[in-house]
């Protein structure tokens, strides 16, 4: 009798739970068919905002090419789903104009020398020669105040001075989430404009093909980012509990994947980062407790993996780092102080092979270390573990598996296999 009652209760409860789950709205967006129809980001954004205002749900984007003048903005509890390789967000030509007047920190008005081609609703980046990274302001043009003047959606992050060649660029992310929770992006392609006339660079601290800032519990799965003039996928400012999986980042101008600025407790797995114009995986500033697993990092114009300032307690497992430039893994000397090193990182069961391409001028490594080892450790990093990795080259190489700065300490090398190398490690003194 007791068994029967339990089964009956389960039978009652399961349909109720399923019903509550399926009650979330689904809105279908398409060019010619769907609940909402259109050819640019405005129709997609309208569907996302509608679903978000109902407390969350799903936006399905039909196959087609949708033009962007601003990023598609992710919202809390919204799940965006495309058709694999067929739902394409296309970033159109960019442009830039010099500022006609200085902009003070906190201001929300800008005046351009030439406003031709700028439209209300456009995403812009505001900067001058004095700053970069988070010192750049990204915003939207929300009102026209005069023939060449606009109000912007965000206060200026800094002073931007005409004397420092301040300018406004129409340079945008493909998909962006700012302080978003409990959301996902699946099976969308972002096609950038790198290499086309008018293409403008947007740094990874402020944008990306997919860009997340201060987000929690967000999934990015099965997405493709190609030819973005910046970093393909970037997550910044203490993002946590993100999962980036099964994504393809190729032929982008700068980095393939860029976790940074205090992000922690995330998963990056089964991604392909290839043929990007700089580092494949750039781990940057305070990244902690992230699992980097089963990723293919190949044929990038910079090193395969770069890691540095306060990037600690991460696990790199089962990755293939092959045919990148200068070295497979670079520990950067971002600070001379030992307390700011990339400590307690573990590399296990990775393949780090044939990373010998020419070093780029903008590289973070020392020129004297390029091509001399599979792993280059510059600076005072300590308690690093390399266990059961395959390291080496397809042909005999005169260098070593590890080029180790004398400032580094407690490097644990356990069960690694060397291929066409005679030396496991070699001392290296940072100039």
Give the distance, in angstroms, between the N- and C-terminal Cα atoms: 79 Å
In CATH, the architecture of the domain at 95-170 is Beta Barrel
Give the spatial strand order of the biggest sheet: 2-1-3-6-15-18-21-24-27-30-33-36-39
Mean pLDDT: 93
Question: How would you describe what is shown here?
Answer:
It is globular and about 65 Å long. The protein has 431 residues and is mainly beta. It is built from 2 helices and 41 strands. It has a domain at 95-170: Thrombin, subunit H, CATH 2.40.10. The strands form 5 sheets. It has a 13-stranded parallel sheet, with helices on one face. The longest helix has 21 residues, at 2-22.
Which descriptors apply to this entry?
13-stranded parallel beta sheet, 431 residues, 37% strand, Thrombin, subunit H, mainly beta, eleven-stranded parallel beta sheet, 2 helices
In short:
With 431 residues, this protein is mostly beta strands.
In terms of topology, how is this protein built?
Elements: H1 2-22, E1 26-30, E2 36-37, H2 41-53, E3 57-61, E4 64-68, E5 72-73, E6 78-81, E7 87-91, E8 95-98, E9 109-111, E10 123-127, E11 137-146, E12 149-152, E13 167-170, E14 175-178, E15 181-186, E16 189-191, E17 210-213, E18 216-221, E19 224-226, E20 233-236, E21 243-245, E22 248-250, E23 257-259, E24 267-269, E25 272-274, E26 281-283, E27 291-293, E28 296-298, E29 305-307, E30 315-317, E31 320-322, E32 329-331, E33 346-348, E34 351-353, E35 373-377, E36 385-387, E37 390-392, E38 400-405, E39 412-414, E40 417-419, E41 423-428
Parallel strand pairs: 1-2, 1-3, 3-6, 4-7, 5-14, 6-15, 7-16, 14-17, 15-18, 16-19, 17-20, 18-21, 19-22, 20-23, 21-24, 22-25, 24-27, 25-28, 26-29, 27-30, 28-31, 29-32, 30-33, 31-34, 32-35, 33-36, 34-37, 35-38, 36-39, 37-40, 38-41
Antiparallel strand pairs: 8-13, 9-12, 10-11, 10-13, 11-12
């Amino acid at each position: 009798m007791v068994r029967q009652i339990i089964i009956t209760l389960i039978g009652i409860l399961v349909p109720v739970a399923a019903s509550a789950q399926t009650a979330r709205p689904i809105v279908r967006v398409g060019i010619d068919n769907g609940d909402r129809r259109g050819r640019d980001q405005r129709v997609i954004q309208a569907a996302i905002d509608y679903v978000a205002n109902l407390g969350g749900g799903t936006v399905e984007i039909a196959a087609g090419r949708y033009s962007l003048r601003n990023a598609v903005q992710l919202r809390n509890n919204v799940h965006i789903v495309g058709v694999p390789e067929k739902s394409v967000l296309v970033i159109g030509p960019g442009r830039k104009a010099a500022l006609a007047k200085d902009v003070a920190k906190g201001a929300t008005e800008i005046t351009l020398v030439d406003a031709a081609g700028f439209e209300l609703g456009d995403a812009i980046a505001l900067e001058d020669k004095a700053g970069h990274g988070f010192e750049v302001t990204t915003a939207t043009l929300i009102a026209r105040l005069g023939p060449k003047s606009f109000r912007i959606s965000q206060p200026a992050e800094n002073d931007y001075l005409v004397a420092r060649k301040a300018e406004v660029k129409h340079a945008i992310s493909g998909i962006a989430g700012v302080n978003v929770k409990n959301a996902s992006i699946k099976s969308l392609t972002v096609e950038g404009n790198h290499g086309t006339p008018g293409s403008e660079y947007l740094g990874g601290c402020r944008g990306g093909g997919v860009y997340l800032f201060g987000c929690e519990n967000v999934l990015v799965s099965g997405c493709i980012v190609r030819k973005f003039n910046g970093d393909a996928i970037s997550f910044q400012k203490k993002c946590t509990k993100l999962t980036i999986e099964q994504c393809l980042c190729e032929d982008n101008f700068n980095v393939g994947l860029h976790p940074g600025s205090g992000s922690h407790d995330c998963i990056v797995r089964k991604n392909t980062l290839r043929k990007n114009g700089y580092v494949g995986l750039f781990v940057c500033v305070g990244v902690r407790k992230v699992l980097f697993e089963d990723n293919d990092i190949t044929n990038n114009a910079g090193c395969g993996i770069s890691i540095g300032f306060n990037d600690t307690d991460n696990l790199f497992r089962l990755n293939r780092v092959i045919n990148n430039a200068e070295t497979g893994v670079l520990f950067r000397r971002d600070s001379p102080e030992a307390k700011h090193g990339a400590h307690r990182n573990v590399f296990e069961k990775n393949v780090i092979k044939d990373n010998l391409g020419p070093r780029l001028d903008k590289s973070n490594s020392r020129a004297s270390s390029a091509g001399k080892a599979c792993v280059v450790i510059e600076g005072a990093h300590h308690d690093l573990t390399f266990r059961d990795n395959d390291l080496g080259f397809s042909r005999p190489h005169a260098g070593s598996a590890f080029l180790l700065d004398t400032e580094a300490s407690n490097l644990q090398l356990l069960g690694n296999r060397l291929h066409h190398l005679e030396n496991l490690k070699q001392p290296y003194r940072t100039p």
